[in-house]
Amino acid sequence: LTLSRVLLLSASLREAFGEIGLVVSSAVACLVDTHSPAVAAASLAVSGKINSAEAVAPVLAALATNTLSKI
Which residues does 14 contact at the CB level (< 8 Å), separation at least 6? Predict the structure, then answer.
């Protein structure tokens, strides 16, 4: 359920705001779960909606925000 919400949020924000929307949604979503934003970015890359280079920033944002939230 979390993954589907994150995937929907990521795709919607990417459509509305471009890559920055995808990065922001990944950073915010990882406060709840780190894996969902990473999987959402990978899913968008596999489906061809973004290229693999565009998937790197959201994954790094998710991991960095999650790490900082635990400090």
Answer: 21, 22, 25, 44, 49, 50
pLDDT in tens, 25-50: 778 777 777 777 888 888 889 999 88
Q: What does the block give as tokens for 31?
A: 């406060």
pTM: 0.68
The distance between the two most distant Cα atoms of the chain, rounded to a whole number of Å, is: 35
Q: How far apart are CA 37 and CA 30, in angstroms?
A: 6
**What is the Cβ-side half-sphere exposure of residue 4, based on CA atoms within 13 angstroms?**
1
Helix (H, G, I), strand (E, B) or coil at 62: helix
